[in-house]
Amino acid sequence: MTARLFAAPLDLGNVRLRNRFVSAPMERNYCEVDGTMTDEYIAYLERRAAGGAALVFTEASYVRADGKGRIRQMGVDVDERIPGIAKMAEAIHAQGALVGVELNHGGRTAQGSVSGFVPVAPSPIPCAVVGGEMPEQLDGDDIEHIIECFGEAAARCQQAGVDVISLHGGHGYLIHQFLSPAYNHRDDKWADPALFVNKVIDAVRTMAPDIALGLRFSAFEAVDGGLDAETTRARIDAIDTDRLDFLDVSAGNYESGQWIIQPGEWPRGLLAPFSEQYTRDFDLPVGVAGRISSPEVAAQIIESGQADFVSMARTLHADPDFPNRALDGGRYRPCIACNYCIDSLAAGPVPCSVNPWVGRELEQPSKPAAAAVRVAVVGGGPSGMAAARDLALAGHRVDLYDERGSLGGDFALASRLHEYPEYLRIVDWYLAEISDLDITCHLGTRVDAAALAGLDFDAVVLATGGRGPEVDLPGADTRRVRDVREFLESGDPAPAAITIFGADREAAAVADDLLQHGTEVVMIGPQETIAHDVGRRGKIVLLPRLAKSANLTTHLSSIVTRIEEDWMVISTAGDERVVDAPGELLISHGVEPRTDLLAAVRSLAPRLGVHTVGDASGDGGSIHAALVTAADVAAKITAAADAREVSA
Length: 648
Fold this sequence. Notes:
CATH superfamily of the largest domain: Aldolase class I
CATH class of the largest domain: Alpha Beta
Number of domains: 3
């Protein structure tokens, strides 16, 4: 029943979706700096089309240069962009999917450091989230010019073979700024919140009459003075929806970014109740976004009539085959909603924590090894499981060893914490994958070089992880002192009180979890801020929660200089003082690679070498880094095996 529901076609204007899965607009920074489409981006989008999505959108694409908000954002602002878009459209069409482009202007969210222009907006209200540059207020002539730019951009897309245009009327961008009482303080005719978007709709319909046209909007802003759900509905009622072919419901703006890209702690499908009234009251297909990361949630939304199609960004970022797997009931790689993708936007091309080939589709191996070899993988954390899986998929014979009684490593420990409820999904996915492949698991087995010596492995992969650095503190014998990972591995219940030396990602997550259990937590960190090593979106919910907790005491920019039974001496900028510090002391100072086995295993000189991955290689520190090193090492071993076969 569910598969038939997903497979039902849907008409958007003059085009037909083959199913109800839409690869939503998602900024990726895969274009050239000037906004031109690249082969890497085409390969990424083509892969989502091959995975079964009915409609594949590119991203919020700027219609005028001063509306650019990302370093390598896609542009539709000049005719020079057309050939790249046409090449992209041809590739997606070849996979049986439709092509969509989302037209946008950043307004107050675009900054001169990126675009090279002074930002413009309906009213001069800066956006502190992206730097706080004061925008110039648009005059009437410039507003009319931007409207023309939307129409011209749509014409370029139509010429390039694009099937669907979505106007970005949400997330705090220019159309949204005109709609919102928080950002439109004008007293001229453009104070009418619907006038700008209606004129944009008219321009697009005039200049690209054959293209399907829709509007994406935020159901609410969740900021003081902004649009609530009732006011948004009034705005949509005032828009010329009779000239649209669909609506697509999202939420939030830059000041409430947690509603644009929701954290993993929040319920899946949480925006569907807000799309329901639009599905019911408008004679248009309606889509909805928001943590739709399982077939069950997608099915419930469509079956209940809350939406006609589902808009998925991170879900298909993590696994482009999600639509096909939802249709055939197969296994899919789950998104864990860690928001590493969105937090990487400012730096460049967007990766994925759980899919190491995102953005690298052109490099991904697609053929099995010509020569199968035998490989030992020592360590069953994420990098070890990933290396074992990739090697087995290539056709190699793999033995996977771990000294613990179960796979998953420290990442599985982290999945128990309040902040990371989705993390266990990727561990379970690897376990299921491993059980289906030719991988022999040896759990509860501590491996040394002697044990490997007589087994004639062609290659050895060390995924032995890391350990917390040794911390020698005066008075450490007065109470129990453990690394934070040792504490998690012990499974000990939450104590009445605890002190944590460190304010990094792990310290923050453990403190947050213990606070949920009523523990009194004292955090002493050399860092100036809590979770300095986590991106803004990754802690957008965490930090306010910690700040509100009456049970958390923090001493930042401080180090512990002496430990006593119930108190400690800490130093802040060279000034020492005594602070209450109850309970045992947990140390959270990162990890150092475990290299105990490295030299000894290298002495065995396996034919295809010894390789380190994840924390053991020094390239860990995140699930993304761990999985990328694992994927690359597996590909390297396969290439070496094939080269050896050819030379032989």
